[in-house]
Specification:
Shape: globular
Strand content: 15-25%
Radius of gyration: 24 Å
Number of helices: 13
Oligomer: single chain
Order of helices and strands: HHEEHHHEEHHEHEEHEEEEEHHHH
Largest sheet: 6 strands, antiparallel
Distance between the termini: 29 Å
Helix content: 55-70%
């Protein structure tokens, strides 16, 4: 692919960041630039709403904050051990997908387990970060902690928002209050993810079912070297039968493959042809069959093909996609922020707990630092494992 073709493929992304750069450059006196790649635009947007809600529903938000503490510590332990488990599988089990990865909307990052479309990613990340920071702010206000400012930021290529609580006031509050303020952002993201999933399942999906009918499943891509790839299947094809039996949606497709074992022959039918493939062992479960396709989704067509129905379907599908990405990114960002890592929310919770558990501040800070470093190393190894594996293949035949 030529340089010109690459630029054309990313023209929307390039134009977006040129506009953002020009806005920051010509208004640089209004921005607080930190570490050369973080641009903060401080305002007081949302502070009055936080004050109003925190005053009117003080006890409710304090209760939610305390619930968030319990959820936060449990999730911190679970996600840390999941991260360790995934790294071990990456090393020991061929074909294992990294559990975490870098995400830049609109950019295919080699080795990342997820690709986020540009506009869905930008909008979703902004929503997720606003909710995250609003959560911190409203719990802080519920405990009478001053919020100095709020605003918008660009963290490198990613848009976001922030609130700035009075750290001196926060440090003087009880441990449980500090925990609840730190956990409020990630807990808000978890609640947002649940809300997005509920809207996806119970609002937009039923609306779609009213005006459409299922016609099969499609998939994003095949796994290189596995049966579907070897059979010549391509991403985007619609599979509508398995061994001659019709499949209309993902549930039926998964059910048709539920008890398939390695070395079984499958005939996958599409609208144009049939593919005969022989299953192999699933990388994560050697006793289960595996065909090697990624990101399956149900495909539908309109029951009544009119301009109005096409317009309604386009809106519903757009909202479905938006809330799907809000769910994934909100859950992912929320859990990532609960890792016991340095300055992130989980790291601050773990630091406060360490200072409480060990009487010696020096010992507590040493433990916190070591756990943070270990978490960072595990993250780096997991995220960049595909690159390390590729690099190793260059030197080891």
């Amino acid at each position: 692919m030529s340089v010109i073709e690459s630029i054309l493929n990313y023209k929307e992304i390039i134009i977006f960041y040129i506009v953002i750069f020009l806005l920051i450059y010509f208004n640089k006196e209004k921005f607080d630039i930190q570490a050369r790649f973080i641009a903060l635009y401080k305002t007081r947007i949302g502070l009055r709403l936080m004050e109003k809600l925190a005053t009117k529903y003080r006890e409710l938000f304090r209760l939610l904050g305390y619930i968030g503490v319990g959820v936060g510590f449990v999730a911190m332990v679970v996600i840390f051990f999941q991260l360790v488990s995934n790294l071990i599988k990456l090393v020991m089990v061929p074909g294992t997908t990294p559990g975490v990865g870098l995400v830049i909307p609109g950019v295919h990052i080699p080795g990342s387990p997820i690709f986020v479309p540009f506009w869905f990613g930008i909008i979703s990340i902004f929503i997720v970060v606003v909710v995250h920071e609003f959560g911190h702010g409203i719990i802080a206000k519920a405990h009478d902690i001053k919020i100095k400012s709020s605003g918008f930021l660009m963290f490198g290529p990613l848009p976001g928002a922030f609130v700035e609580p009075d750290e001196k006031q926060l440090s003087k509050k009880s441990d449980i209050t500090q925990y609840s303020v730190f956990a409020a952002g990630p807990f808000s993201n978890i609640l947002l993810a649940l809300l997005a999933m509920a809207l996806f399942l119970w609002v937009f999906t039923p609306l779609q079912n009213i005006i459409t009918e299922p016609i099969g499943i499609s998939f994003e891509s095949t796994v290189e070297g596995f049966p579907a790839d070897l059979a010549g299947m391509k991403g985007g094809e619609i599979i509508n039968s398995v061994n001659g039996k019709p499949v209309k949606d993902t549930a039926e497709f998964i059910d048709a493959l539920r008890f398939v074992k390695p070395n079984e022959t499958l005939v996958l039918g599409t609208e144009e042809k049939e593919y005969t493939i022989i299953t192999t062992s699933n990388p994560e479960d050697p006793e289960a069959g595996y065909i090697g396709i990624k990101s399956i989704q149900s495909e539908v067509r309109l029951k009544e093909d009119t301009k109005l129905m096409n317009f309604l379907l386009a809106i519903i599908l757009w909202l479905q996609d938006l809330f799907k990405w809000v769910f994934f990114l909100s859950l992912g960002i929320g859990l990532a922020n609960l890792l016991p890592l340095g300055p992130v929310d989980g790291g601050r919770m773990f630091q406060t707990a360490s200072l409480k558990l060990w009487k010696s501040e020096k010992k507590a800070m040493k433990i916190w630092k070591n756990v943070s470093i270990a978490t960072l190393v595990i993250l780096i190894l997991t995220v960049f494992f595909p690159f390390f594996k590729w690099l190793g293949s260059l030197f080891i035949p």
